Amino acid sequence: MKLIKSRLWRRLLATVGVLLVVAGGLGVGNSSDLWAAEDGQPQLLAHRGIAQTFPLDGVEADTCTATRIHPPEHLLVENTIDSMRAAFDAGADMLEFDVQLTADNQLAVFHDSTLECRTDGTGRVRDHTLAELRKLDLGYGYTADGGATHPLRGKGVGLLPAAEEVIAAFPDRELLVDLKNDDRADGERLADLLATLPAQRRATIGVYGGDVAVRAVAERLPQLRVASRQTMKDCLLRYLAVGWSGHVPDACRNTELHLPQRYGRLLWGWPDLFVERMRGAGTRVILVAGDGPWSAGFDGEEALDQVPEHWSGWLWSNRVDAIAPHLRP
Q1: Is the pTM of this model over 0.70?
Q2: Where in this chain does the record put each GP-PDE domain (predicted)?
C-alpha cells in the first residue's frame, strides 16, 4: 500500500511539474515584457477630424451630444474638411469619418441620422438631397451652457462634404469610413465608390459599421480591411482559443480591431506582442478609451496614462491636437 501511495504521489508531482513547465512556457511565449519593442510609438486616429468633446456620463443612443459639449477650445465642426485637415496638421496618422446615403443616392459625411440636434435642418438625412444638406449650418445646435450661447452657430454653413470629396482631399492619407446606417444599400453604395479607386489607394482605406452594411462592402471588395461586431467577434474568439501558440487565425487577418483598453489584457501577448502579431497579419489594432460603447477617445494628457507603455498600435482620439504634443514632443 505504501508503495502504491508513493507511486501515485510521484505521478502527481510529475504531472504538476509538467503543467508548471507548460504554463511557464505559455507565459514566456506570450510575454510582452520579453517581446516588447522599447521604442514603441503610437499612431493617432482622428475621430471625425478634430471634434468638440462632451462628457459621456448619462449618454444614451438618442442623446443630443451637441447640447452638452465642453466649453469650446476651438471652433472646428466635426466631419468637415477643415476639421480633418486640422487633425492631419496636428499629427494624425489616420482620419475617421461618417457616411450615410442621401435621397439622391450620395454619400453624405454626417454623424446623426436626423438633423435637429446639430443643424438648423429637420428630418432624416436620407430624406434630403446632398444639395439640400449643403445649405445647412452644421454648427447651429452646439452649446456648452444649456442654450444660452451657441459658439459654433454660423461656423458650419455649407461645409457638409460628400465621401468622394474627403477621399480626394487627402489622396495619400490613411482613412477609416464609418457606415452609420446598417443598411445593405449604404454598404453597396460605398463599395461602388471604392471600386473606382486604384487598388493601391484602397489599401489605405478601411471600413467599419454594422454587420449588414459591412458585409455588403466585404463581398464586393474582399481585400478591403473591414470591421464590424461580427468580424471582431469571429477574430477574437478564435484568437483566444489558439493565440497561446502564436498562431493568428484567418479571421484576424487583414482586418480592423477596435479594442476598449480594459478588455485587451485578456488577449494572448497583450499588449505589444499581440499588436505585433496582428500587424504581421495585416491587421490594425485601434485602442479605444474606457469601455468602448460611445467611442471614447484619448483626448488629453491625463488619458494617456491609461495607454500601455511602449504602445505601438493606434490610439482613437477626438482631440489629436491635444495629445500629439505629449506623444511627439
Answers
A1: yes
A2: 42-319
